[in-house]
Amino acid sequence: MSNETTPSDPAPQTIGKLPGYRFDMGHQETERMVDELEQICKTVKYSAGDAWMTASAAESILCTDLGYEDAAELEDAIRGRFEDFLKALPHIETKIQDDGSASQGKLVFRPKPQLPFAERKMFLKKLTVSTREDLWRVVHKAPCAVIEIPELEFEIGADAKRKIDSLYNLIASAVYNLSMHVSTLGASLSEDHKAKISETVDELNKLLDVDKPWTLLLHDRTGLSEIRPEEGVETTYAGQAEEDPAEENERRQQEALEKAIAEEEGE
């Protein structure tokens, strides 16, 4: 197995070039923060619909729930300002509140409204990765979505939860997982199998050097995934989208809640 499981020179993180470039979305603590933020958004949605929430209020809740002493410690963990972190998340929309309320002038946010299920279509997104800066685009991969790299006949398959990360980290994570697979099951794998995995790891690492352009295909039957920024991304639409299992479960919970409220009001 090759020892070169990471590229020797990380892709440049050019200030101002790509939204979200500075945040390691794959870092365990950052991922935990994204998960907790989603729970906060769900709580707000169930109680107040599509209402906007101030970034400062969410930051305070995160500090309490995740055990940070204060906002400064939280921002140390994400290596940046919390407001910038929110702006980098592709499934979140932000604005400066201007409704004359107590939140006037503050940054507020909410989950980005999704197209109604009936209006969504399956799609294929294609990105030609031609510079190392492209590696710091942020990919929002829906649970049912599949990432394909046709040059290597390699796929990152569907998962139980959505993934939000830089393209660089998605590839680096695949390298790590393949390496751990060999390390864990090495004794039970044939030499031919290990050699093929080693070759794939080496080829994935070469992609991170971007010595030549390569292609990223994002297949999504649910129509929920994104690549940001969108410049240079080609999208081909197909038929009616399928409902994501997590989305279906959330919809049913919401319907049950609305039914319970209606029955209570009718008594």
Automatic annotation (TrEMBL):
UniProt keyword Zinc present: yes
Zinc-finger found in the keyword field: yes
InterPro entries assigned to the protein according to its UniProt record, in alphabetical order: Znf_ZPR1, ZPR1, ZPR1_A/B_dom, ZPR1_jr_dom
Positions of region (Disordered): 227-267
Biased composition (Basic and acidic residues): 248-267
One Gene Ontology CC term in the entry: nucleus
SMART domains the UniProt entry points to: Zpr1 (SM00709)
Domain of life assignment: Eukaryota
Residue span(s) of domain Zinc finger ZPR1-type: 104-229
Keywords: Metal-binding, Zinc, Zinc-finger
GO MF term list: zinc ion binding
Family: Belongs to the ZPR1 family.
Protein name, UniProt field: Zinc finger ZPR1-type domain-containing protein
Source organism: Hemiselmis andersenii (Cryptophyte alga)
